UniProtKB/TrEMBL annotation, chain A:
Its EC number is 1.2.99.2. It comes from the Bacteria. Residues 20-130 form the Aldehyde oxidase/xanthine dehydrogenase a/b hammerhead domain. InterPro entries: Ald_Oxase/Xan_DH_a/b, Ald_Oxase/Xan_DH_a/b_sf, Ald_Oxase/xanthine_DH-like, AldOxase/xan_DH_MoCoBD1, AldOxase/xan_DH_MoCoBD2, AldOxase/xan_DH_Mopterin-bd_sf. It comes from Pseudonocardia dioxanivorans (strain ATCC 55486 / DSM 44775 / JCM 13855 / CB1190). SMART domains: Ald_Xan_dh_C. This is Carbon-monoxide dehydrogenase (Acceptor). The keyword Oxidoreductase applies. Keywords: Molybdenum, Oxidoreductase.
From TrEMBL, chain B:
InterPro entries: 2Fe-2S-bd (IPR002888), 2Fe-2S-bd_dom_sf (IPR036884), 2Fe-2S_ferredoxin-like_sf (IPR036010), 2Fe-2S_ferredoxin-type (IPR001041), 2Fe2S_fd_BS (IPR006058), Beta-grasp_dom_sf (IPR012675), Diverse_Oxidoreductases (IPR051452). Keywords: 2Fe-2S, Iron, Iron-sulfur, Metal-binding, Oxidoreductase. The lineage of its organism: Bacteria, Bacillati, Actinomycetota, Actinomycetes, Pseudonocardiales. CDD domains: fer2 (cd00207). Gene3D superfamilies: 3.10.20.30, [2Fe-2S]-binding domain (1.10.150.120). Its EC number is 1.2.99.2. This is Carbon-monoxide dehydrogenase (Acceptor).
Length: 788, 153
């Protein structure tokens, strides 16, 4: 390849193995003497465990482990926030169960079939307690004794004079909005294999995790092992989306079991029913909002009360604060605002724990904010486009300090919105909408969302609620091998984002070698020095920055060594495609293989003052974060008779900074929009009043397929960010828009208010019927025609 | 029970329990870990293989039901000389995969689609591939890939 591979869609390093069936997923691992684990899970939402009888299972020859057998290990997610109530999450429930699906015991057998046979023999007697499933139900029974009111965290963001400004506002809009619980639901469920070697007390844990170093750190602490003797390996991972950025009780139990079965690999591969019941959920929120506007549509003040259902446990390490704090910090999104007060809280219930899911809280908070703008626009006789243009942060406002004190460094929202409007053919759609209004045809509506995605958070903006660590940095090692080819040991992890490819591009570019000559090792704590992992759209910025810095450091040594060998000044040298040449004298060259050979094998030729070896390790921390601006616009058609919503056009334009691999960037955006569409229209984890998950299979929990996701138009406003590579994260932005866009479009089509999600046929039909009744018209009957 | 199958051109004789699914037997007894298990209740399509040229959910079929059958998995798509099948090439070229977990099932479903619909339009591809769930791509790259593979045939 000539020139830099950075910025071009080179073939992904990962693809060959993945399209030929040679992927290396945890579930594929087969080791000698391997045993399989099945968990006994609580069938009830809230109960005291009266007794647990493992006798019959043990008599039948199964190994059974309870919390007592594991030494009572408890995960504790910590935060220094003053209102945070710390609670524990046991590896296996003891004394009490707090959600249906919680692991209570583990059974080990020769294969999974037999392990499940054994699990059926474990007899647990439960005395049920009153369950709470809705976070805003007052007076519910306590999930944890430490928090009698179930509030695990509450914080108020306060700026300006909200009450005074609201009192004097030309228009105030009040709304109560409820968003639907759904989940990341990657195609590969969770999986782990743990093997303990007693000879040197080393534990190896293959895990489909997004955060191997964080897992190693806490597993070592909980099990009393030397951290260097715990190796966590995340090989190919089949999607994560935040769900796998949590250290789960099953992970801890599996490792603890391995310690008790030395030399025996123990394997647990979660099935989908377990996943839906017990992996983390998200987005179960209620927003009580009052916004004040001037007559020209300027947003003046916003008062918000946000309650997030955090489920039964405060997940490690993110705590129950992950969703409420994100909702409060970013509710105002890309809109300028001075007067803001938001009280946010995380409330425990007898449901599966909530955790990070792509977009963390913002798909809900963007829906809330955009709903307020649409409502105000309708009352003020403005268009949805004009009220957004009136209020968005603009390039001249940058850096803009949001009322939550976050600093926005991308002000290209209006430009994104304008491009997205062009992409859907906005004027033509409005004309078609008008035409249909005079006919009996299904109405169409147009919806909008502008959002800011906070990415690549450095230590000053670090992800998470004042946890006992700061996630601002990653490390990378670039090693030039004796043959002149390059191996990179990076702290990043990949669950489909193509990080092996991206890191190879960055290193090839910075070091001056061919992309094909760079191999990348990721997801192995024994190979890489440090990486926090995949979350908060951080790895292109931070892991990428570390790869860039370490490649530059390696390049510097290559040049010093080559300069000594060529007897020239290092400043006169350049490297391209692995050949070091003297600038202006192209015939004086030395290949990287020769330089590397000297570095490792021919110390007799080493220039004075240069040590053997050709490797560099560097950290990178951007200190602050980089905002990625985005706007989405869609047109939908609504069937008044059935409430079905069909997407006609969908466009998204983002400022993703410099795109290192345009195809991967667009793939991230398309995939995240599809997830957002799933959450907006179909996906809903529904608990009944007893705390049973009633959408516990993929027959009930509807994921979008190629038949539902429309053709997507993706555009870019590429403004480089202020970091060495000029990049902004792109992992999450796409998920932020669809709730708001599709709810706004349905609202626009039918002239109704949408107060709850998802936009299921029943929600849409009910809203249409209510609007018709409010207007004093005949409700729509099946097969009938609306008479406006 | 004793069963015999031809898996990717190789005759295999196996002892299986009646309750063992074809997916588990392919993965654990035949070493065909390319076939993935995503839901074990027949919805996601990740475990799709061809049994006597028809796509089946190998998580819903017992291995004993495949006795005497010819089974094709993703691991038989590539030629012996390492040449990728046009569908595999197209998935790579069009970013039709990210994590790659659904990909084996997508490829096997697409293989059957191209056999039965030689010139599918995008609408047909979207409809026919809708039994396979992908959580990563938003399907655009997959539809693009199948469309191109059909064109190149």
């Amino acid at each position: 390849m000539n020139g830099s591979p950075l910025g071009t869609s080179v073939p992904r390093k990962e693809d060959r193995r993945l399209v030929t069936g040679r992927g290396r997923f945890v579930g594929d691992l087969q080791l000698p003497r391997m045993r399989h684990v099945a968990f006994v899970r609580s069938p009830v939402a809230h109960a005291r465990i009266v007794s647990l009888d493992a006798g019959p299972a043990r008599e039948a020859g199964y190994r059974v482990f309870t919390q007592a057998d594991l030494g009572g290990i408890v995960l504790r997610a910590q935060s220094a926030l003053p209102s945070y109530v710390e609670t524990g999450q046991p590896a296996l429930a003891e004394g009490k169960v707090r959600f249906a699906g919680e692991p209570v015991a583990a059974v080990v057998a020769a294969d999974r079939y037999r392990a499940e046979d054994g699990a059926e023999l474990v007899d647990v007697d439960y005395a049920t307690l009153p369950p709470v499933t809705v976070a805003w139900d007052a007076g519910a029974a306590a999930v944890h004794d430490e928090a009698p009111d179930n509030v695990l965290l509450e914080r108020t963001f306060d700026a300006g004079d909200v009450d005074g400004v609201l009192a004097g506002a030309h228009l105030t809009v009040e709304r109560e909005l409820v968003t639907n619980r759904h989940a990341g639901n990657p195609m590969e469920c969770r999986a782990g294999v743990a093997l303990f070697d007693p000879a040197d007390r080393r534990l190896t844990f293959w895990s489909g995790t997004q955060v191997p170093h964080l897992v190693r750190n806490m597993i070592a602490e909980l099990l009393g092992l030397s951290e260097g003797n715990v190796r966590v390996v995340a090989p190919d991972v089949g999607g994560g989306f935040g769900v796998k950025a949590v250290l789960y009780p099953e992970d801890v139990a599996l490792c603890a079991i391995a310690l008790q079965l030395p030399g025996t690999p123990v394997k647990w591969v979660e099935d989908r029913v377990e996943h839906l019941a017990a992996a983390t959920h998200a987005r179960d929120h209620r927003y009580l909002l009052t916004a004040g506007f001037a007559a020209d549509g300027t947003l003046l003040a916003l008062r918000a009360d946000v309650t997030c259902n955090v489920g039964a446990y405060s997940v490690y390490p993110w705590t129950a604060g992950i969703e409420p704090l994100m909702a409060g910090g970013l509710l105002t999104g890309p809109y300028k605002l001075e007067h803001y007060r938001a009280t946010v809280r995380g409330v425990a219930t007898n449901t599966a724990p909530s955790g990070p899911y792509r977009g963390v809280a913002r798909p809900a908070s963007v829906f809330a904010m955009e709903t307020l703008l649409d409502d105000a626009a309708a009352r003020l006789g403005m268009t949805g486009v004009d009220i957004r243009r009136r209020n968005v942060i603009r390039p001249e406002d940058i850096p803009y300090r949001m009322p939550s004190r976050l600093v926005d460094d991308s002000g290209h929202y209006d430009e994104c919105l304008t491009k997205a409007l062009d992409a859907v053919g906005y004027d033509e759609l409005r004309a078609e909408q008008q035409r249909r209004r005079g006919t009996g045809e299904s109405p169409i509506g147009i919806g909008f969302a502008c959002y800011n995605e906070l990415t690549g958070l450095g230590r000053a903006a670090s992800a998470g609620p004042r946890m006992p660590f700061r996630t601002g940095h990653d490390a990378c090692t670039v090693r030039v091998n004796p043959d002149g080819r390059v191996t990179v040991f990076s702290g990043v992890t990949s669950q489909g984002q193509g990080l092996e490819t991206t890191v190879a591009q960055i290193v090839a570019d910075a070091l001056g070698v061919r992309y094909d000559d760079v191999d990348v090792r990721i997801g192995d704590t024994d190979a890489s020095l440090w990486g926090f992992g995949a979350f908060s759209s951080r790895q292109a910025v931070i892991g990428g920055g570390a790869a860039h810095r370490s490649a530059l450091a390696a390049r510097s040594k290559v040049l010093r060594l080559a300069a000594g060998l060529l007897e020239v000044d290092p400043a006169d040298l350049q490297i391209e495609d692995g050949v070091v040449a003297v600038v202006g004298s192209p015939d004086t060259t030395i290949g990287l293989p020769e330089v590397a050979r000297v570095a490792y094998l021919e110390s007799n030729r080493l220039p004075d003052g240069i040590e053997p070896g050709l490797e560099a390790t560097e950290f990178y921390d951007p200190v602050r974060g980089a905002f990625a601006a985005g706007a989405q616009v869609a047109a939908v058609e609504v069937d008044r008779t059935t409430g079905a919503v069909r997407i006609l056009r969908y466009a998204c334009v983002e400022d993703a900074g410099r795109a290192m691999h345009p195809q991967i960037v667009d793939g991230q955006i398309a995939g995240s929009i599809a997830q957002g569409i799933g959450g907006a229209l179909y996906e809903h984890l529904v608990y009944d009043a007893d705390g049973n998950l009633s959408t516990g299979t993929l027959l009930d929990y509807l994921m979008p397929t190629s038949a539902e996701i429309p053709e997507l138009t993706i555009g870019h406003v590429a403004r480089p960010a202020a970091n060495p590579l000029g990049v902004r994260g792109v992992g999450e932005g796409g998920t932020l828009g669809p709730n708001a866009v599709l709810a706004g479009a349905v609202s626009d089509a039918l002239g109704v208010r949408i107060d709850e999600l998802p936009l299921s046929p029943s929600v849409v039909w009910t809203a249409a019927r209510r609007a018709a009744e409010d207007a004093g018209k005949t409700p729509v009957e099946p097969g009938g025609r609306h008479s406006d | 029970m004793e069963i015999t199958m031809v898996v990717d051109g190789e005759r295999v004789e196996l002892t299986v329990e009646p309750r063992h699914t074809l997916a588990d037997v392919l993965r654990e007894q035949c070493g065909r870990t390319g076939t993935h298990v995503g839901c074990e209740h027949g919805v996601c399509g990740a475990c799709t293989v061809l049994v006597d040229d028809e796509p089946v959910r190998s998580c819903l079929m017992f291995a004993v039901q495949a006795d005497g059958s010819t089974v094709r998995t993703v691991e038989g798509l590539e030629s012996d000389d390492g040449t990728l099948h046009p569908l595999q090439e197209a998935f790579v070229a069009h970013h039709g995969l990210q994590c790659g977990f659904c990909t084996p099932g997508m490829l096997m479903t697409a293989l059957h689609l191209l056999d039965t619909h030689p010139e599918p339009d995008r609408e047909t591809i979207r409809r026919e591939m809708s039994g396979n769930i992908c959580r990563c791509t938003g399907y655009m790259g997959i539809v693009d890939a199948v469309e191109e593979a059909a064109r190149l045939r």
